[in-house]
């Protein structure tokens, strides 16, 4: 059977390995997953309660207006509900951004290494991809590349902080870039990990309302998968001016988010104690990862996220990842990003200790 | 801001109204929803148990291989796991079928009135749409229209039984049609309600394994939203030969289904008692809807689904739906399908009684 030609150019995302699958395949009894930047403290107690209380409603279609969560987010961000769209993960909003702006005649821009899904979605449209020579966000390089291909570039992704590398632009730099580009170029600011960055350094804190007010082409992307610990429930959101949200709505399938995800997200936003504990654990434990790297002369970029990326010279990241897997520890090998590096999610204290113990033996 | 031109041609699906929203808007205390073909018996006890037991895993990304559910479905249908793809509702598999086959240069075929999402997704590709003059599936009309535009038509939707009308082709007619069309034309057999039809009349029963074996271009679509009562959790599947599934996988975003949906679906498949009770309630109560229609001289098509469609001559379906809404009863007005008709989900006995009581007053 013949399929549309554009399918030939598509590649698939390589997801983090699943705990149950690894336990089975490697015959390991206890598996520690430090691969997918999930919240190591588990599901937030308030979200768990909402799930338990609403589980019996699984037979009912979701409220497609999503008014409860939208009201909550609108009040949190001081924006209008018309400036909001909710997706099956912020991934889905990335997809809408790509499909509404890109086509075979234009291009998008990102830094050298960033979230893989930007390029995967963009390939579906046949658009070109421009990446800076620097793997991290370098504002002057981004500007130079934008200027050179100004007529082509209709979408820019800024990942603030950057996954899978961990560095983070300042909010002022994001604004500087927004001021620089044409109004017809959509700038998607992927803030999936921005709560972590803001906690470490308030200069990194992005306010969607402030961005929207000043820049008609700003799109802020947030997720419930990281700090809010709902990775399994696929829920995220986009904040932008009404015109952009309207265009995205045309691409949205009805019922794109489950009713239990909506209920859990509403509850998770209120769980301030859980949020504080998550942020504190993360940066306390991050210090140990930095000390470990310094002690073993492993290069790393100071991280503003809930993970740290270690770079290697002689050791091979694939070998190291495979050796850890055999011990029941899953980390993320970054070979598919063209890097001899691994990304490790900051876990709970005992998980991190086990990682240090096992990793020390093999480096 | 400029967006891709194709967005201008898109329309949105009109979902059934939400219970909580209607209660608020109309100030009604008890709302009865007979609008979205949800299972009136609620969530299956086994699925509910699975949700309660797995709710604490909401923080973990889903197993993207979906191996547990795939194994279960493969064994149920006697197909290989490579012949299966799981989507956020069977809607998402419809989307993959459309995007892998259709483009501005070709077309798809359906009967006069069928599930609205076929056309909504197809519009995203710019493909043409051919519909038979008959609103229901008329095999000879479908064949004639296919023959006339054979070179253009690359995808056909058969909805077996048909939503929103309720009629149902025999399995032998589906096979007859499959034998008739070219191998390069994908035939999507939407079996969302086929379990209901099979229970009423075994001649309607479709076996994916049998279809796959004989026809390389057959795609069977199933859902957990109706009989299995998981409409809120957005989960469905496609069964087709490996080549088709591979093409669809290229369009699939990672983690397209939530981890709780996967767990609930596995459990729901096992809940035989719940399934029997659902089917029995449905067709026992269906009789009352037929009697009601006969008594009031309302036209209807005998239904092989969990809903019945009433057609009106003089009364206006929009007025009738609105009057019922004020009484706290939600049914589905079919004006957006170009019909002066309403679709009513078969509810629990007391819900149906309330419908009859209120409807009798206004017709």
Description of the molecule:
Two copies of one chain form a homodimer. Chain A has 363 residues and is of the alpha/beta class. Chain A has two domains: 5-43 and 273-362, Alpha-Beta Complex (Aspartate Aminotransferase, domain 1), CATH 3.90.1150.10; 45-270, Type I PLP-dependent aspartate aminotransferase-like (Major domain) (Aspartate Aminotransferase, domain 2, 3-Layer(aba) Sandwich), CATH 3.40.640.10. Chain A has 14 helices and 13 strands. The first copy, chain A, has helices at residues 19-26, 45-54, 67-77, 90-101, 116-123, 139-148, 171-180, 194-200, 208-214, 242-251, 259-270, 272-295, 317-326, 349-362; strands at 32-33, 84-87, 107-110, 128-131, 153-159, 186-190, 218-223, 236-239, 299-300, 307-311, 329-330, 332-333, 341-345. In chain A, strands 2-8-7-6-5-3-4 form a seven-stranded mixed beta sheet, with helices on both faces. Chain A has a four-stranded antiparallel beta sheet with strand order 9-10-13-12, with helices on one face. In chain A, strand 5, helix 7 (171-180) and strand 6 form a beta-alpha-beta unit. In chain A, helix 2 runs antiparallel to helix 11, helix 4 (90-101) crosses helix 5 and helix 4 packs across helix 10 (242-251). Chain A is globular and about 55 Å long. The model of chain A has no long low-confidence stretch (mean pLDDT 96). At the A-B interface, helix 1, helix 2, helix 4, helix 10 and helix 11 of A face helix 1, helix 2, helix 4, helix 10 and helix 11 of B.
